[in-house]
């Protein structure tokens, strides 16, 4: 899709996402331009408690004010919205999400909304950016919201593999954030950081130059991707070895229990072909993203 950077409003009237059409907002704003199917595009889902600066972080990533922000008691984001970057070397698709626990949704509605988030980041999110304010204390109540979102996601292993903590309002934090996270931070926040493998980015939305924050985020995303590839390959090697061992054991039992040499040889050939097919599938066809 080509665009001139102007706002394009697309009415979604008949689209159903994951059989939950009622979870869709009435409109999505597609801002700028970008190809959804571009493999180089980073799909970033921003989530967190209302008032944690999710929309501001999204604007920082896109280098433009694409999402509305507010400082009042009423949250600025009440529906899921997304935007594409324009004019940047690194392409982004940023999904700005509301605090589902703060807008009166039922459990089934929240499940549908999270299902829609997955569809918007298909085939998978490059990063799930969980925003946490670093200028106020992280409370058990906020941690309960995080755990609820993680449970709604379903696949907690994949969720944590792609999780990055976005520490917001860094301009109001005077101390050493890294030191606080390792020492005096609440146990609940340390638990979130453990889920994220220690990955976090601090955002100062009032900084003159915000590019370095985005560069740090992109670097973390690429590092996560490399780690997943390595762990996925090791996982597939283990599966492959277990499969070969299984077919070898079956062949050995067949040789011992079968008097007919021809039948044993035929069974051995089948086992060998099955093992070879298993190896090919595991090592080359089923690598996890």
Automatic annotation (TrEMBL):
UniProt keyword Manganese present: no
Transmembrane segments: 240-260, 266-284
Superkingdom assignment: Eukaryota
One Pfam family in the UniProt entry: AIG1
Keywords attached to this entry: GTP-binding, Membrane, Nucleotide-binding, Transmembrane, Transmembrane helix
Gene Ontology MF terms: GTP binding
Domain AIG1-type G: 39-242
PROSITE patterns with a match to the protein in the record: G_AIG1
Leader peptide range in chain numbering: none
Family membership: Belongs to the TRAFAC class TrmE-Era-EngA-EngB-Septin-like GTPase superfamily. AIG1/Toc34/Toc159-like paraseptin GTPase family. IAN subfamily.
Annotated protein name in UniProt: AIG1-type G domain-containing protein
Upper taxonomic lineage: Eukaryota, Metazoa, Spiralia, Lophotrochozoa, Mollusca
